[in-house]
Amino acid sequence: MGLRLLFAAMLLVTLAGPPARAVEPSERLADSTLEARARALSKELRCLVCQNQSIDESNADLAHDLRVLLRQRLVAGDTDQQVLDYLTARYGVFVLLEPPFAPLTWLLWLTPPALVLGGGGLLLLRARRRRPDPTAPDLTQDESARAALLLGEPR
Amino acid sequence: MLVEIGHFALILAMLVALVQGIVPLLGALVRSRALMDLARPAALLQFGLVALAFAVFMHAHIISDFSVRNVFENSHTAKPMIYKVTGVWGSHEGSMMLWVFMLSLFGGLVGAFGRGLPTSLRARTLAVQGLLGFGTLLFIIATSNPFDRLFPTPADGRDLNPLLQDPGLAFHPPFLYFGYVGFSITYSFAIAALVEGRVGAQWARWVRPWALSAWCGLTIGIAMGSWWAYYVLGWGGWWYWDPVENASFMPWLLGTALLHSAAVVEKRETLQRWTVLLAILTFGMSLIGTFLVRSGVLTSVHSFAVDPTRGVFILVLIALVIGGGLLLYAVRVPGLEIGNPFAPVSREGALVLNNLLLSAGMATVFLGTFYPLFAEVWSGVKLSVGPQFFDATFVPILIPGIIAMVIGPVLAWRRGNLGAVLRRLSPALIGAFLAPAVVFLFDRTAPPAGLAGVALATWAMLGVLTDLADRASLARLPLRATWRRLRHLPRGTWGYATAHFGVGVLIAGIVVSTTWRSERIETMRAGDSLEIAGRTLRFVGVTESDVANYHVERAQIIAERPDASPMTLYPERRWYPVARSRTTNTAIATNGFGDLYLALGDPDGQGGWVLRAYYNPLVPWIWFGAVLAALGGLVSLSDRRLRVRLPAARAPVAAAVRAVDS
After folding, report:
1. Residue B359 and which of B44, B262, B279, B644 are 20 to 30 A apart at CA?
2. Are the Cβ atoms of A20 and B235 closer than 8 angstroms?
3. Does some domain include residue B331?
């Protein structure tokens, strides 16, 4: 979020409202376990009118409303998953900061491990094919030249 | 009048850049020394003209010449002088000027100090740099003219976005751009080498100092940006995986890979092809970072419509630079030498692993940044890719890299012995098991991820120290001899050790501050107090006053600890009437091992104020670590300068040896 503000400012985009200031004391639930769950959940949810902020970090009015809403659902006895499902049904998958694993996001989630495993596998195969010749000199041409220089001119 | 001179200098610089981009290339083609030699004076002249235009632009900001549209839109007579100067790069036009200034600076530097380069390579490198300069200058003059006039002249300006009126931010863009744009010269070197069809140890030796300088600038730039986000945004976070942060992080990841693979090319004449590709892609990422992300395309697919000229221009420029570079690469790469073979377990092998992980990490960041855009175009579904994605994918990719970072430098070139290396590193290995155990004794509720992080950070830091001790034969020789050995280690070794140790420090900062952070958010009235991390915070009250171009509400808070004298902190809220914008200014008390971090929130209308208090243990280490890493780069750079002269002295001998061989 940090650098974005800088560049947004550079682009003369007026930022809506003051810098974000997160959850307010007045919203807090008395039950501390429930409040801890609410905080954890609010870090997973996007503030829909902000750029890339969770509702935990934003002080936009909508973020405040969502924080209050999710606490109401928790007090009413919803599980964490039920709260997330409820909000996804209302606002779409856009509200989830962690994209779910679905056909649309297979490529997103599977590419990183595929790159590491695939790339690593390819490199290992190639290395097996091109083992260094144990009889070849250990020096590059440049190093041989330097060695020759040192041997040729004993100090 | 002065402004017109600046404008004229900018246009002239564009024409000079065009000449610099074409004539030396032709000269190299027809082997005309005179035409090739034009590259140097052209690069110097282009730099001189751009510098002149930049100085004129800065002057207009300093004297608040509101007849210049950019000054009117981004300045105000009441703005403090330092921000009149640094406000120069606080707007789109101004940051483009800074960008092209850096671009011509690097060309000028190669022109001035590239005497040791072969004429044709220098001519081609400077020509590519000239073409890049021409493209950027054309973009500035055609779509983002900083010297645009206004008539009638307004009485006062609209002021700079208050978020940019901050000392940390004032110097963040120059460093960042030095890094971003610095990689343009490694790109130019790569294109020139592809045209020549030769990439060898010598080429790598020429490229490395430039890559190192750019990398140091980028490292400092990113660290300053993250530090600014930390102290200004008011909830103590320092990295958000935001598109613009990712935009600076992607070239950093590839640039780091480039540094390491160029070292392999220089020392072992292998990985040439890969290194050239990295040089092209690193600058490509810089371009994508500064342009595509800033164009706003990531926030909305439709934002190009706001200013289609700029958007289309940027796309064409990026397509030409990256596409052209990759096309040339595809055509020329079969002609490049295949490097010397090496075993998987060797220093080359470790560096290849480092390159694989850094590149996969970069690809992951790229995918996470751009996926919402792709998904929306394909399916119309709006997706969010938040920090959770990067924590789950990027972090696991980098962990093996950190482990290997300690082992790699201890392995031998060509064929290494992993068992022997681990035995040599056993003190670090023991430390990596002991440190989390000790932490666990103090905090039985510590999460496993935090403990694993402690192990990793200890391994990274102790690993470097163990290697240094080993290289200096600590405990095998008398202390005095060890000291002498340490002093005589090559600068390159000190550079690696400092940088890698810095990474360990950085990881310690990240792990400890995220795992053991405390937070209190309370409504406070005068006389109230709260407890956080063994400290008592007493809220004295809030005073209001008018300063320079803003109105300030300032809270006074006294922090008391049983074993130390009390400290007073003043977190603020500011209101900038001209820019109509509010900022929070946090108060941070640090002792180098932890920050007490206070941010003043909104008043509740009944005499109470929301206070956000955080204790962030070890968080300063994040920036200490980054600074150490950059310092390591500088130390290596000082070694390089000594060595650049060596090949010239050695060349006749090498030639003689080759003559005898054949």
Report:
1. B644
2. yes
3. no
